[in-house]
Structure formats: structure tokens, C-alpha cells
Amino acid sequence: MAAPRNIVVIGGGQAGGWTARTLRDEGFDGSVVLIGAERHPPHERPPLSKAVLLGEKPPEITHLFPGNSYDQLAIELRLGNLVTSIDARAKNVRLDDGEIVPFDLLMLAMGGRPRELPVPGTSLAGVHMLRTIDDSLALGKDLKSGCSVLVVGGGWIGLEVAAAARKKNCQVTVIEALDRLCARGVAPDVSEYLLTLHRGHGVDVRLNIGLASLEGVNHLTRAVLSDGSTLQCDVAVIGIGMVPNVELAKAAGLAVDNGIVVDGLGCTSHPDIYAAGDLANRPSARLGRRVRLESWENAQNQAITAAKAMLGKTDQTYDDVPWFWSDQYGVNLQLLGLAQSWEQRVTRGRTDKLPYVAFYLTRDQIEGALGLNAGRDMRFVRRLMTLGKQVGAGQLGDPAVKLQDLARP
Q: Measured in Å, how far apart are the chain's first and last C-alpha atoms?
């Protein structure tokens, strides 16, 4: 089989940017074309709900690499272009301006888009969703001191927006249709901690309630909730999850099931097409099931593995311990693993005083861990989980036992 000469990357986020960079770092000297729907160069998204949203940092801090890197690495950027179709048999992609770009290998890294809420009034001025740099800048302009903000959705994005809005001295209400915050991704005790944290900072958090409609003449002025109550608001942020951008892949005949189905190297059901990041559904021997993860580290590291595999370097599949983090009100929350069940919960430190770590164990195996302002400890916890070491609850819960000693191979 001839070595690839033309590689096309669709997507200008973490996965797309790191795919292109890794191809060059690994010595590929053929054509690399990166096509991004946004007009911004490849970037990461975490600061968009934090420092960029608050106006503390310019959007340029999200850029993955210096602007001159792409010229130096001979990576051709096609920004502000949409791919309208993929012809897997002819091996080319069609852009929205009609241009056809051929490929030997293709990386799909289009990520996802905010899930829309099918209620009246979401097109009013003052109603936002947060995914892109432009979304963050637009929302930031509306978060004026003293304004009333409604956040629909008590997941990570919603809670980070709520924390940012409170920092800008806004009055904030969060509504969540389920009975606890971040219910799909964290243990009940973590949900309770988040609830206490936000209420302690003046956020009106309402559980088991949804949104019926948004009202106003041109601009938002009021929300009607699912119980019939009303709420005056100047700004609303819809944060009810993300939809993976799989439509192009599905139309091209690729296997799709809660994302684009890939193997441990990022290869799809077509041998010359790969996928990585928020839209990729991969196998995890570590977790014993398939997973689709929405985190910047997963997007980066999965893309690096896939880019190497595109060049024939297939000695190591991707199966890192899942890691998530969030900063809210000066508290750094880190989560390791995707614990669905456990036999025992053990804490290191006092739960009413930071830092502390909570472990979720099954027969001395760490299924997951939560760290609050405990970044150093979590590095060693990650090592323990990566090594698959069994550790007794007594040792994990005893601050006198050093985690770095337990984490030695």
C-alpha cells in the first residue's frame, strides 16, 4: 500500500489541531490541510466558560499554537469553511463554496454542538448557548453587573457560566430538570457538594424543574418554567448538553452509534478515515465498555494516537484514565475515572475543609476519584489508576500514608 501523501483534517478544535501538529512532529512531509468551520485557528475550549467569558483574558489564549506555527510546519489552514459532504469511495470532501479537496487519509474532528431546547423564545436577543469563541465573547458582553441571568441546565457548562456570572455580580438562577446537578457524570455526593457550593455563593438553584418558554419583545425579559411559575431575566444561557457532529460521517456510510465508532487507534469503519475527540466512540479495556468522552485531554491524546496510527505507528492504542476538571469560585474540581458503581467511598482529609480527595472503591480497586483543590494528590491517584494497583481503604484514607509511595510501580 502506498504511503499517504494528502491528509485532510476536518475540525479546528483540540483534536483537529493536535492531529495536524502530530503528523508533522512524527515526520510526515506530505500535504496537511486543516478545514475549520470557525474563523479562528485551532484552539481549546475550557477558557471560553472562564477567563475569556469574564474578559480576564483575550480569546487568543485559547489558540493551541503560535500563529506562525502553521506556516513553519506547512499546515494549510482553511478557516471559515464548512465541509458539506464526504465521498468515502472517491476519497474527497466537498466544501460549502463547491471546492473538492482530495485525501489519502481523513481525520474527522468536528466535535459537537450545543443541544437545542425546543421551547418558544430561544431566538430572542439575550438568549445564548456556549461552544465557540464568538459565543463566549457575545455572552460576556451581556453579563453586566446587576443583570438577572437564567442558566438552563445544571451540568458543567451551566455551572461554570453561573460561577462566572456571579463573579460579574449578576443575579443567577440555575434550573435543572433532574433531581441533582451533573447527575449523568458524577456521584451523588459530588452533586451535593456542587449544590452547596453554588447556593453558598448566592445562586438560586432549582432542581426537578424545566423551562416552558422564554418571552419578550425582540429581547428576553421573562422565563416561564415548567411548573407555571415565571422569572424575570435579562439573559438566558441554554446548557443542556452537546450533540456530536456525526451527520457527515453517517451520510458517508461510516458506522455511527452515540458518536462515530472507532477502534483503539481512532480508525473508523473505513480504513482510510479516522475520528478523534468529542464525537468519537471508542473501546476502553480499562472501563470494560465503549465510551464517548467530552474533555479536552481526551480530544488531545486520542488525536495524537490516531495521527501516529495514520502514519503506520500502531504499537499503542489509546485508553487513558478519563480525567475531567472544572474551576468554580476558586475551587478546582478534578474527576478521575467514570465510576458507575462502587462498594466503598473513602475520603482523605476532612470533607468540610479543602483540600480533600474522595475515592470510590470496589475490592481495593479505585473505580473513580474526586479531588477538591488537591491537584498534587490527584497526579498520584491517576498513576495508581493507570497502573491498576489495588490499595486498601485504610491506606488511601490515612493522610500519613503518602500517595506517591503507594503509586510507585
A: 41
Please check whether residue 12 is in contact with residue 62, taking contact to mean a CB–CB distance below 8 angstroms: no
Q: What is the pLDDT of residues 200-234, one digit of tens each?
A: 999 999 999 999 999 999 999 999 999 999 999 99
Which grid cell sits at 227? 411548573
Question: Which runs of consecutive H residues, i.e. helices, occur in 201-351?
Answer: 247-251, 296-310
pTM score of the predicted model: 0.95
Residues 173, 177, 183, 189: is their CA dihedral positive or negative? positive
Amino acid (one-letter) located at 399: P
Residue type, 75: I
- Say if strands 365-372 and 331-336 run parallel, antiparallel, or are unpaired: antiparallel
Residues 304, 18 contacting (CB under 8 angstroms)? yes
Specify the long-range contacts of residues 248-254, CB closer than 8 Å, at least 24 apart. Answer: 248/10, 248/83, 248/85, 248/86, 248/108, 248/110, 249/86, 249/108, 249/273, 249/275, 249/279, 251/85, 251/86, 252/85, 252/86, 252/87, 252/88, 253/88, 254/88
Give dist(CA 192, CA 170) in Å, integer. Answer: 23
22 phi and psi angles, rounded to 5 deg: -65, -35
